[in-house]
Amino acid sequence: MSSDASWKTAQQVSFVAGPTGYVPTHPAVKAAEAEAIRNDVEAFKAAGGQVIAIPSPSAR
After folding, report:
1. Is 49 left (phi over 0), alpha (psi -120 to 50) or beta?
2. 18-48 tens-digit pLDDT
3. DSSP string computed for 2-58
4. d(Cα 50, Cα 57) in Å, to the nearest integer?
5. Minimal CA–CA distance to 51: which of 38, 41, 43, 40?
6. 48 Ramachandran zone, left/alpha/beta (phi>0; psi -120 to 50)
């Protein structure tokens, strides 16, 4: 006997809604964005700009 309504077709109900407008980003895209920001900061520092690092509260 076969049935399409077996435990294999059951789905969990989602009680938590995801954030609106969330679009997953590939790690390579994040890495490229981080590299671009890093390059901008280095160029700013090379041009005589001052960068002050604010310590993270979790780094105490």
Report:
1. beta
2. 777 888 899 999 999 999 999 999 999 999 9
3. --SSSGGG------SPPPTT-----HHHHHHHHHHHHHHHHHHHHTT----PPPPGG
4. 22
5. 41
6. left
